[in-house]
Amino acid sequence: MAYVITDTCTKDELCVQACPVDCIHPKQDEATFADAPQLYVNPNDCIDCGACVPVCPSNSVFSLDDLPADLSAFTELNAAHYN
After folding, report:
1. pLDDT by residue (tens digit) across 30-68?
2. Which is nearest to 2 in space by CA: 45, 57, 54?
3. Which of 30, 37, 41, 51 could be joined to 18 by an S-S link, Cβ 3.0–4.6 Å?
C-alpha cells in the first residue's frame, strides 16, 4: 500500500475525485458511507501516484514513508476495510 488515510478524514471526497484508479472508498453513493468514520485506500488498487495527498484539506493522507509512527495502525485499518 502506498498511501494511508487517517482518522482526521472528513469524508469530503476530494481524494476520491483526484484518484485515477478509483481506489478510495466508501463513496457517498455506497451503502456503507454513512456508517464509515473515514475513507480508506485499497492497498491492492493504489498505484502510488500521490494525487490524493495535495487535495486533502485535513492532511489525512500519508504515504507509508511519511506516516507518523503513532498513526501506523491506520495501515491495517485501511487494508481491513477491503477484506
Report:
1. 999 999 999 999 999 999 999 999 999 999 999 999 999
2. 45
3. 51
